[in-house]
Design brief:
390 residues; alpha+beta; five-stranded mixed β-sheet; 11 helices; 18% strand; elongated
Protein backbone atom coordinates (compact mmCIF):
# COMPACT_ATOMS: atom_id res chain seq x y z
CA UNK A 1 0.00 0.00 0.00
CA UNK A 2 2.82 2.43 0.88
CA UNK A 3 4.64 1.90 -2.44
CA UNK A 4 2.45 4.60 -3.95
CA UNK A 5 3.87 7.13 -1.50
CA UNK A 6 7.31 7.30 -3.07
CA UNK A 7 7.92 11.02 -2.56
CA UNK A 8 8.96 12.67 0.68
CA UNK A 9 9.46 16.17 2.04
CA UNK A 10 9.59 17.76 5.49
CA UNK A 11 5.90 16.90 6.05
CA UNK A 12 6.31 13.19 5.34
CA UNK A 13 5.75 10.70 2.54
CA UNK A 14 3.25 11.56 -0.18
CA UNK A 15 1.95 10.53 -3.55
CA UNK A 16 0.90 12.75 -6.46
CA UNK A 17 -2.73 13.09 -7.52
CA UNK A 18 -3.71 14.96 -10.66
CA UNK A 19 -5.55 18.18 -9.90
CA UNK A 20 -7.61 17.85 -13.07
CA UNK A 21 -11.10 16.47 -12.41
CA UNK A 22 -11.53 13.07 -14.07
CA UNK A 23 -14.83 11.70 -12.76
CA UNK A 24 -18.35 13.09 -12.95
CA UNK A 25 -19.04 16.78 -13.57
CA UNK A 26 -15.63 17.42 -15.09
CA UNK A 27 -16.89 19.73 -17.86
CA UNK A 28 -16.42 23.47 -17.54
CA UNK A 29 -20.08 24.08 -18.40
CA UNK A 30 -21.15 22.09 -15.33
CA UNK A 31 -18.82 23.71 -12.76
CA UNK A 32 -17.49 26.92 -14.34
CA UNK A 33 -15.94 28.24 -11.10
CA UNK A 34 -13.49 25.34 -11.12
CA UNK A 35 -12.11 26.39 -14.50
CA UNK A 36 -9.21 28.83 -14.16
CA UNK A 37 -5.58 29.09 -15.35
CA UNK A 38 -2.62 28.02 -13.23
CA UNK A 39 0.78 29.48 -14.06
CA UNK A 40 3.95 27.39 -13.77
CA UNK A 41 7.54 28.34 -13.04
CA UNK A 42 9.18 25.94 -15.47
CA UNK A 43 12.55 26.10 -13.68
CA UNK A 44 11.33 24.54 -10.42
CA UNK A 45 7.70 23.42 -10.94
CA UNK A 46 6.19 25.91 -8.51
CA UNK A 47 2.75 27.26 -9.32
CA UNK A 48 0.75 30.46 -8.95
CA UNK A 49 -2.60 31.97 -9.85
CA UNK A 50 -0.86 35.15 -11.00
CA UNK A 51 1.05 35.38 -14.26
CA UNK A 52 4.42 37.19 -14.18
CA UNK A 53 7.97 36.76 -15.45
CA UNK A 54 8.60 33.75 -13.20
CA UNK A 55 5.24 32.08 -13.55
CA UNK A 56 4.68 32.35 -17.26
CA UNK A 57 3.53 28.91 -18.48
CA UNK A 58 -0.27 28.65 -18.44
CA UNK A 59 -1.99 25.34 -17.75
CA UNK A 60 -5.76 24.85 -18.17
CA UNK A 61 -7.83 21.81 -17.08
CA UNK A 62 -8.82 20.55 -20.51
CA UNK A 63 -9.47 16.88 -21.26
CA UNK A 64 -6.68 15.52 -23.51
CA UNK A 65 -8.84 12.81 -25.08
CA UNK A 66 -11.63 15.14 -26.18
CA UNK A 67 -10.06 18.60 -26.17
CA UNK A 68 -12.98 19.95 -24.13
CA UNK A 69 -12.62 22.46 -21.32
CA UNK A 70 -12.61 20.63 -18.00
CA UNK A 71 -12.29 21.64 -14.34
CA UNK A 72 -9.86 21.40 -11.43
CA UNK A 73 -10.73 19.44 -8.29
CA UNK A 74 -9.99 22.45 -6.12
CA UNK A 75 -11.54 25.88 -6.06
CA UNK A 76 -9.34 28.99 -6.17
CA UNK A 77 -9.87 29.44 -2.43
CA UNK A 78 -8.60 25.99 -1.60
CA UNK A 79 -5.70 26.44 -3.99
CA UNK A 80 -4.67 29.63 -2.15
CA UNK A 81 -5.04 28.02 1.30
CA UNK A 82 -3.13 24.85 0.39
CA UNK A 83 -0.77 26.11 -2.29
CA UNK A 84 2.19 24.39 -0.61
CA UNK A 85 0.59 21.04 -1.56
CA UNK A 86 0.37 21.94 -5.27
CA UNK A 87 3.15 21.50 -7.80
CA UNK A 88 3.66 21.07 -11.52
CA UNK A 89 5.50 18.25 -13.25
CA UNK A 90 6.69 17.93 -16.79
CA UNK A 91 4.95 15.12 -18.66
CA UNK A 92 4.77 13.62 -22.15
CA UNK A 93 1.47 14.21 -23.90
CA UNK A 94 0.95 12.94 -27.44
CA UNK A 95 4.71 12.64 -27.77
CA UNK A 96 5.35 16.27 -26.79
CA UNK A 97 6.64 17.86 -23.58
CA UNK A 98 3.93 19.48 -21.50
CA UNK A 99 3.13 20.37 -17.90
CA UNK A 100 0.37 19.13 -15.64
CA UNK A 101 -0.72 20.09 -12.12
CA UNK A 102 -0.64 17.72 -9.16
CA UNK A 103 -1.40 17.79 -5.44
CA UNK A 104 0.57 16.13 -2.64
CA UNK A 105 -1.46 13.46 -0.89
CA UNK A 106 0.36 12.71 2.37
CA UNK A 107 0.51 9.32 4.03
CA UNK A 108 1.42 10.83 7.41
CA UNK A 109 2.31 14.19 8.93
CA UNK A 110 5.14 15.66 11.04
CA UNK A 111 3.60 14.22 14.21
CA UNK A 112 3.80 10.73 12.83
CA UNK A 113 0.05 10.21 12.87
CA UNK A 114 -0.54 7.83 9.99
CA UNK A 115 -3.64 8.70 8.02
CA UNK A 116 -6.18 6.01 7.25
CA UNK A 117 -5.96 5.26 3.53
CA UNK A 118 -8.41 3.46 1.32
CA UNK A 119 -7.49 -0.14 0.62
CA UNK A 120 -6.62 -0.58 -3.02
CA UNK A 121 -9.27 -2.61 -4.83
CA UNK A 122 -9.94 -3.85 -8.33
CA UNK A 123 -12.18 -0.81 -8.89
CA UNK A 124 -9.01 1.32 -8.86
CA UNK A 125 -7.82 -0.49 -11.99
CA UNK A 126 -7.10 1.87 -14.86
CA UNK A 127 -9.57 0.00 -17.08
CA UNK A 128 -12.37 1.08 -14.72
CA UNK A 129 -11.69 4.77 -15.41
CA UNK A 130 -14.84 6.48 -16.62
CA UNK A 131 -12.79 8.37 -19.18
CA UNK A 132 -12.42 5.02 -20.95
CA UNK A 133 -16.19 4.92 -21.30
CA UNK A 134 -16.14 8.28 -23.05
CA UNK A 135 -13.33 7.12 -25.35
CA UNK A 136 -15.22 3.92 -26.23
CA UNK A 137 -18.36 5.83 -27.20
CA UNK A 138 -16.27 8.34 -29.13
CA UNK A 139 -14.64 5.52 -31.14
CA UNK A 140 -17.96 3.83 -31.88
CA UNK A 141 -19.66 7.05 -32.99
CA UNK A 142 -16.80 8.27 -35.21
CA UNK A 143 -15.38 10.81 -32.73
CA UNK A 144 -18.81 12.16 -31.76
CA UNK A 145 -19.91 11.82 -28.12
CA UNK A 146 -23.73 11.67 -27.99
CA UNK A 147 -23.87 10.58 -24.33
CA UNK A 148 -22.31 12.05 -21.18
CA UNK A 149 -20.54 9.88 -18.59
CA UNK A 150 -21.01 6.42 -20.15
CA UNK A 151 -19.79 3.53 -18.01
CA UNK A 152 -16.65 1.74 -19.26
CA UNK A 153 -17.23 -1.65 -20.86
CA UNK A 154 -14.57 -3.27 -18.66
CA UNK A 155 -16.47 -2.25 -15.53
CA UNK A 156 -19.66 -4.00 -16.66
CA UNK A 157 -17.75 -7.04 -17.91
CA UNK A 158 -16.15 -7.35 -14.48
CA UNK A 159 -19.52 -7.14 -12.73
CA UNK A 160 -21.13 -9.66 -15.10
CA UNK A 161 -18.20 -12.05 -14.61
CA UNK A 162 -18.55 -11.76 -10.83
CA UNK A 163 -22.31 -12.43 -10.61
CA UNK A 164 -22.87 -14.56 -13.73
CA UNK A 165 -22.53 -18.25 -12.91
CA UNK A 166 -23.75 -19.63 -16.23
CA UNK A 167 -22.78 -18.68 -19.77
CA UNK A 168 -26.45 -18.33 -20.71
CA UNK A 169 -27.52 -15.87 -18.00
CA UNK A 170 -29.86 -12.97 -18.74
CA UNK A 171 -28.38 -9.61 -17.74
CA UNK A 172 -30.90 -6.85 -16.90
CA UNK A 173 -29.98 -3.17 -16.82
CA UNK A 174 -32.96 -1.13 -15.67
CA UNK A 175 -31.25 2.23 -16.37
CA UNK A 176 -29.41 1.34 -19.56
CA UNK A 177 -28.43 4.81 -20.78
CA UNK A 178 -26.12 4.40 -23.77
CA UNK A 179 -26.44 0.55 -23.50
CA UNK A 180 -22.93 -0.09 -22.16
CA UNK A 181 -24.26 -3.29 -20.57
CA UNK A 182 -25.41 -4.66 -23.94
CA UNK A 183 -22.00 -3.81 -25.40
CA UNK A 184 -20.24 -5.53 -22.49
CA UNK A 185 -22.39 -8.68 -22.70
CA UNK A 186 -21.73 -9.08 -26.44
CA UNK A 187 -18.00 -8.47 -25.89
CA UNK A 188 -17.86 -11.03 -23.08
CA UNK A 189 -19.68 -13.61 -25.21
CA UNK A 190 -17.14 -13.06 -27.97
CA UNK A 191 -14.28 -13.61 -25.52
CA UNK A 192 -15.46 -16.74 -23.70
CA UNK A 193 -18.00 -18.28 -26.09
CA UNK A 194 -20.93 -17.52 -23.79
CA UNK A 195 -24.55 -17.19 -24.84
CA UNK A 196 -25.66 -14.50 -22.39
CA UNK A 197 -28.63 -12.33 -23.25
CA UNK A 198 -29.38 -8.79 -22.18
CA UNK A 199 -32.50 -6.79 -21.41
CA UNK A 200 -32.04 -3.01 -21.57
CA UNK A 201 -34.73 -0.77 -20.06
CA UNK A 202 -34.63 2.97 -20.66
CA UNK A 203 -37.20 5.78 -20.60
CA UNK A 204 -37.24 7.72 -23.91
CA UNK A 205 -35.76 10.79 -22.22
CA UNK A 206 -35.63 13.62 -24.75
CA UNK A 207 -32.19 14.95 -25.68
CA UNK A 208 -31.52 18.64 -25.17
CA UNK A 209 -31.77 20.47 -28.50
CA UNK A 210 -28.38 22.06 -27.79
CA UNK A 211 -26.69 18.71 -27.11
CA UNK A 212 -24.33 16.93 -29.51
CA UNK A 213 -26.69 13.96 -29.51
CA UNK A 214 -29.62 16.03 -30.77
CA UNK A 215 -27.45 17.68 -33.42
CA UNK A 216 -26.40 14.20 -34.58
CA UNK A 217 -30.06 13.22 -35.07
CA UNK A 218 -30.81 11.39 -31.81
CA UNK A 219 -34.07 12.69 -30.40
CA UNK A 220 -33.98 10.62 -27.20
CA UNK A 221 -31.62 8.43 -25.18
CA UNK A 222 -33.21 5.19 -26.44
CA UNK A 223 -32.14 6.04 -29.99
CA UNK A 224 -28.55 6.46 -28.79
CA UNK A 225 -28.63 3.08 -27.06
CA UNK A 226 -30.07 1.26 -30.07
CA UNK A 227 -27.49 2.74 -32.41
CA UNK A 228 -24.68 1.86 -30.02
CA UNK A 229 -25.77 -1.79 -29.88
CA UNK A 230 -25.81 -1.93 -33.69
CA UNK A 231 -22.38 -0.35 -34.03
CA UNK A 232 -20.83 -2.26 -31.14
CA UNK A 233 -22.07 -5.58 -32.55
CA UNK A 234 -20.64 -4.81 -35.96
CA UNK A 235 -17.33 -3.74 -34.42
CA UNK A 236 -17.11 -6.94 -32.35
CA UNK A 237 -17.58 -9.06 -35.47
CA UNK A 238 -14.90 -7.08 -37.30
CA UNK A 239 -12.46 -7.42 -34.41
CA UNK A 240 -13.03 -11.18 -34.24
CA UNK A 241 -12.36 -11.88 -37.90
CA UNK A 242 -10.14 -14.81 -36.87
CA UNK A 243 -13.25 -16.71 -35.76
CA UNK A 244 -14.47 -19.64 -37.80
CA UNK A 245 -17.74 -19.21 -39.69
CA UNK A 246 -19.43 -21.52 -37.18
CA UNK A 247 -18.22 -19.43 -34.23
CA UNK A 248 -19.42 -16.23 -35.90
CA UNK A 249 -22.87 -17.72 -36.45
CA UNK A 250 -23.04 -18.57 -32.73
CA UNK A 251 -21.99 -15.03 -31.74
CA UNK A 252 -25.40 -13.40 -31.47
CA UNK A 253 -25.32 -9.61 -31.87
CA UNK A 254 -28.99 -9.24 -32.77
CA UNK A 255 -31.62 -7.60 -30.60
CA UNK A 256 -35.31 -6.68 -30.59
CA UNK A 257 -36.80 -3.35 -29.57
CA UNK A 258 -40.12 -3.10 -27.70
CA UNK A 259 -41.89 0.03 -26.55
CA UNK A 260 -44.31 0.00 -23.64
CA UNK A 261 -47.75 1.05 -24.84
CA UNK A 262 -51.44 0.51 -24.31
CA UNK A 263 -53.20 -2.59 -25.65
CA UNK A 264 -53.57 -2.96 -29.41
CA UNK A 265 -57.25 -3.73 -28.87
CA UNK A 266 -59.89 -1.08 -28.34
CA UNK A 267 -61.76 -1.16 -25.05
CA UNK A 268 -65.50 -0.76 -24.75
CA UNK A 269 -66.62 2.59 -23.39
CA UNK A 270 -69.22 1.64 -20.77
CA UNK A 271 -70.09 5.18 -19.75
CA UNK A 272 -73.90 5.26 -19.27
CA UNK A 273 -75.91 7.03 -21.99
CA UNK A 274 -79.38 8.55 -21.95
CA UNK A 275 -82.19 7.92 -24.41
CA UNK A 276 -81.25 11.15 -26.13
CA UNK A 277 -77.71 9.80 -26.66
CA UNK A 278 -78.59 6.65 -28.62
CA UNK A 279 -76.59 7.89 -31.59
CA UNK A 280 -73.53 7.87 -29.34
CA UNK A 281 -74.24 4.26 -28.38
CA UNK A 282 -74.53 3.23 -32.05
CA UNK A 283 -71.25 5.00 -32.75
CA UNK A 284 -69.55 3.06 -29.98
CA UNK A 285 -70.90 -0.24 -31.31
CA UNK A 286 -69.78 0.51 -34.85
CA UNK A 287 -66.36 1.49 -33.52
CA UNK A 288 -65.97 -2.00 -32.00
CA UNK A 289 -66.62 -3.88 -35.26
CA UNK A 290 -62.86 -3.74 -35.87
CA UNK A 291 -61.28 -4.12 -32.44
CA UNK A 292 -57.63 -3.62 -33.44
CA UNK A 293 -56.56 0.00 -33.31
CA UNK A 294 -55.92 1.36 -36.83
CA UNK A 295 -52.33 2.47 -36.13
CA UNK A 296 -51.16 -0.98 -34.98
CA UNK A 297 -49.39 -3.61 -37.10
CA UNK A 298 -49.66 -7.41 -37.15
CA UNK A 299 -46.37 -7.69 -35.27
CA UNK A 300 -47.69 -5.37 -32.57
CA UNK A 301 -50.56 -7.80 -32.08
CA UNK A 302 -48.25 -10.83 -32.18
CA UNK A 303 -46.14 -9.35 -29.36
CA UNK A 304 -49.20 -8.67 -27.21
CA UNK A 305 -50.52 -12.19 -27.76
CA UNK A 306 -47.15 -13.67 -26.77
CA UNK A 307 -47.08 -11.60 -23.58
CA UNK A 308 -50.64 -12.53 -22.61
CA UNK A 309 -49.93 -16.23 -23.17
CA UNK A 310 -46.68 -16.06 -21.21
CA UNK A 311 -44.43 -16.74 -24.20
CA UNK A 312 -40.99 -15.07 -23.90
CA UNK A 313 -40.43 -12.27 -26.38
CA UNK A 314 -37.03 -13.81 -27.13
CA UNK A 315 -38.76 -16.60 -29.05
CA UNK A 316 -38.38 -16.41 -32.80
CA UNK A 317 -41.23 -15.00 -34.89
CA UNK A 318 -41.25 -16.37 -38.44
CA UNK A 319 -43.77 -15.28 -41.11
CA UNK A 320 -45.17 -18.19 -43.14
CA UNK A 321 -47.32 -18.07 -46.26
CA UNK A 322 -50.50 -20.14 -46.21
CA UNK A 323 -52.51 -19.91 -49.43
CA UNK A 324 -51.46 -16.29 -49.84
CA UNK A 325 -52.27 -15.40 -46.24
CA UNK A 326 -49.56 -14.51 -43.72
CA UNK A 327 -49.35 -16.36 -40.42
CA UNK A 328 -46.63 -16.18 -37.77
CA UNK A 329 -44.86 -19.23 -36.37
CA UNK A 330 -43.67 -18.62 -32.79
CA UNK A 331 -40.64 -20.54 -31.55
CA UNK A 332 -38.32 -22.87 -33.44
CA UNK A 333 -40.82 -25.75 -33.16
CA UNK A 334 -43.95 -23.69 -33.88
CA UNK A 335 -45.18 -23.52 -30.32
CA UNK A 336 -47.89 -21.14 -31.54
CA UNK A 337 -49.26 -20.19 -34.92
CA UNK A 338 -50.93 -16.79 -35.15
CA UNK A 339 -53.04 -15.68 -38.08
CA UNK A 340 -54.60 -12.23 -38.32
CA UNK A 341 -55.30 -12.28 -42.06
CA UNK A 342 -58.86 -11.71 -43.35
CA UNK A 343 -61.17 -14.27 -44.99
CA UNK A 344 -59.69 -17.47 -43.51
CA UNK A 345 -61.25 -20.50 -45.26
CA UNK A 346 -61.50 -24.15 -44.12
CA UNK A 347 -58.68 -25.17 -46.45
CA UNK A 348 -56.48 -22.50 -44.86
CA UNK A 349 -57.21 -23.90 -41.40
CA UNK A 350 -56.40 -27.44 -42.63
CA UNK A 351 -53.00 -26.28 -43.86
CA UNK A 352 -52.32 -24.35 -40.63
CA UNK A 353 -53.00 -27.52 -38.66
CA UNK A 354 -50.21 -29.25 -40.62
CA UNK A 355 -47.68 -27.09 -38.75
CA UNK A 356 -48.80 -28.96 -35.59
CA UNK A 357 -48.81 -26.00 -33.23
CA UNK A 358 -49.90 -26.44 -29.63
CA UNK A 359 -52.27 -23.52 -30.13
CA UNK A 360 -53.59 -21.72 -33.19
CA UNK A 361 -54.58 -18.12 -32.55
CA UNK A 362 -56.86 -16.51 -35.14
CA UNK A 363 -58.53 -13.12 -35.14
CA UNK A 364 -62.32 -13.14 -34.89
CA UNK A 365 -62.31 -10.74 -37.82
CA UNK A 366 -60.53 -13.38 -39.93
CA UNK A 367 -63.81 -15.29 -40.32
CA UNK A 368 -66.59 -14.04 -42.55
CA UNK A 369 -69.28 -15.44 -40.23
CA UNK A 370 -69.96 -17.72 -37.28
CA UNK A 371 -70.22 -20.77 -39.56
CA UNK A 372 -66.64 -20.31 -40.77
CA UNK A 373 -65.52 -19.94 -37.15
CA UNK A 374 -67.33 -23.12 -36.12
CA UNK A 375 -65.81 -25.06 -39.05
CA UNK A 376 -62.33 -23.96 -37.95
CA UNK A 377 -63.05 -25.19 -34.41
CA UNK A 378 -64.04 -28.69 -35.57
CA UNK A 379 -61.17 -29.01 -38.06
CA UNK A 380 -58.63 -28.16 -35.39
CA UNK A 381 -60.32 -30.41 -32.82
CA UNK A 382 -59.81 -33.36 -35.20
CA UNK A 383 -56.09 -32.48 -35.38
CA UNK A 384 -55.72 -32.06 -31.63
CA UNK A 385 -54.95 -28.35 -31.93
CA UNK A 386 -56.47 -25.79 -29.56
CA UNK A 387 -58.10 -22.74 -31.15
CA UNK A 388 -57.97 -19.38 -29.43
CA UNK A 389 -59.68 -16.25 -30.74
CA UNK A 390 -58.57 -12.64 -30.34
Amino acid sequence: MTNEYKYEDECGKYRLLGLRQRGGFWRRSERPLLYYPIYVNTTNGEVSLVENEQYNYKVLPYQPTTGEDGTWRWSKGKFINEREKVLAKQIKRNGNDDWDIFTKDYLGNTLGEVRKTKVKSMWDDKDMNYQNGTTEVKNIFNNNIPFNFPKPVELIKKIVSMVGIDYDDIILDFFSGSATTAHAVMQLNAEDGGNRQFIMVQLPEVCDEKSEAYKAGYKNICEIGKERIRRAGKKILEENNQMTLEDKEQLDIGFKVFKLDSSNLKTWDNTPVTVEQMDLLYERMNNMIHRVKPDRSDLDMVSEIMLKLGVPLTYSVTPVDINGKTAYSIGDDCLLLICLAPDVQPEDVEQMAEYAPAKLIISRESFVDDTAMANAHYILKDHGVELKLV
